[in-house]
Amino acid sequence: MFDKVLVANRGEIAVRVMRACEELGIDTVAVYSEADKDSGHVRYADEAYNVGPARAADSYLDHEAVVDAAKKADADAIHPGYGFLAENAAFAGKVEETEGVKWIGPSADSMEQLGEKTHARKTMREADVPIVPGTTDPVEDPAEVTEFGEEHGYPIAIKAEGGGGGRGMKVVRSAEEAEDQLESAKREGEAYFDNDNVYLERYLENPRHIEVQIIADHHGNVRHLGERDCSLQRRHQKVIEEGPSPALTDELREEIAEAARRGADAAGYYNAGTFEFLVEEDTEREGGELLGPETNFYFLEVNTRIQVEHTVTEELTDIDIVKSQIRVAQDEELGFSQDEVELEGHAMEFRINAENAANDFAPATGGDLETYDPPGGIGVRLDDALRQGDELVTDYDSMVAKLIVHGSDREECIVRSQRALAEYDIEGIPTIIPFHRLMLEDDAFVAGTHTTKYLDHTLDPERIEEAQEKWGGKTDSTAGDDEEVVERQFTVEVNGKRFEVDLEERGAAAIPTAGASGGSGGQKPQPAGGDSGGSDGAAADAEGGSVTAEMQGTILDVNVQAGDEVAAGDVVCVLEAMKMENDVVADRGGTVSQVAVAEGDSVDMGDVLVAFE
């Protein structure tokens, strides 16, 4: 068994992995950015290492910094969680090449083969797994897009080879859109995945999103753990996941699961992974009617990592997937056969995001958890890292926690979920709990007839606003706004080893430094606010006017330079926020005096992007 595992992630998934390690008798190591120095995963770990500033590219995505932390901690394995470096084959390869450190995940070769979508499509086609009509080689020219449209019809999906979750995907509905959408998809692919290769697929108008959990060992044993239905999505981002699917017959569910197992076996895949499929929905289907084995389903992609929603499968099967990952990485065989995998009851996962669903799911820009009182009771599980009094870190994703509810059947699961969400008390920040409560009373969701397009094209936004008014709690935090924070640096010596220590004093006079001696160590940090920044932010001389960021995000493209003449309405840069590209336009004309940002920069709301004379 490993002695010490470094978790190359943050937040609730880092704590989830650490809990599994603790139960296996394994010590844990956290990595954190300057923005996360007071975060929950740092408190939970046995030891923690700072890997850089708030910007993810300079901390959590820094290969060298993460591997160096593992070496310093004498960790013998790295678990990547999900997101960040979890599907980065180059990083996995670097870990594999590091003496004394194991990678808890699929091999770098498998990640490259299946993580890049064109390779995955070829592998699945050879394994007789149905794939959506599309290309298996990268597309470079807009003419290729229009030719595909002429052959297969519109709309067409242009997808980044390394993409997922809607990033790097653009929909082309006519030949006139081909050039702009191709350029946009390639730009997102380069910005987020360091890979501007894209491919084409026929765009399915009303699909269900069904995924199959796979676990495989180094000895050729491949098991599927049933399916999850992730059809309730907003802009291709999952919101509620459940299992088993309320729309499939047992025959169709087994066909899809076996296709996933066949694909994993053909690819020589091991460790945990998720095979995702699109299932063509019958738009005339009513509640109670199920999709049978005659229904078309198509391979979508493989997520070569553990998923956010792995918890649904754990509740259904009573199999700890994270522990299985760790055991597989140590060359152990799976301890169960396919016939022994049974799904009991029904489970749902609710992503508790710090967003205001009534305001187009706008993410919170800050705040403190003045009240944080999670639900409990039979069949209720909570995966989180925050505690009451913590300050919300807004430099990364908006997920605060995951609420997972299990019942004997879907009806009981829905009723229990309604109870648990009503108990979940969070004040100080907005969350999408009111939206979840609305969905549990929504006819289409309760009937299981919703598709991936339901939220974006069918649900009346006024219903979301009404739910927010009805169930939304206090979302503005004022405590501590004027609290003085004094930070001092000390050099201390513990057992002959020198340490540089940063200490903060809140709401009190400055800490005297004369005669200071080393403090006690060994205790995990207690909940505290902390600096949610770490980014310098954009700054510019804006005397003559400026364009500022209306939301937190990442600069994908800059369209102007100093000296350029712009008119009102001209696009000065492209900002990605909430996985959507947003054109940032000038509200007045003038001469650009300074450009304060560059491609790839992270910005906060209110940061100056471009200044005018």
Global outline: globular
Amino-to-carboxy terminus distance: 64 Å
Look at the helices and sheets and give the structural class: alpha+beta
Give a short account of the largest sheet. Answer: 8 strands, antiparallel
Structure description:
It is a single chain. The protein has 613 residues and is α+β, with helices and mostly antiparallel strands. 26% of the residues lie in helices and 29% in strands. The strands form eight sheets. It has an eight-stranded antiparallel sheet, sandwiched between helices. A five-stranded parallel sheet has the order 3-2-1-4-5. Strands 23-30-28-25 form a four-stranded antiparallel sheet, with no helix packed on it. β15 and β16 form a beta hairpin. α12 runs antiparallel to α13. The longest helix has 17 residues, at 250-266. Mean pLDDT is 88; it is low at 508-543.
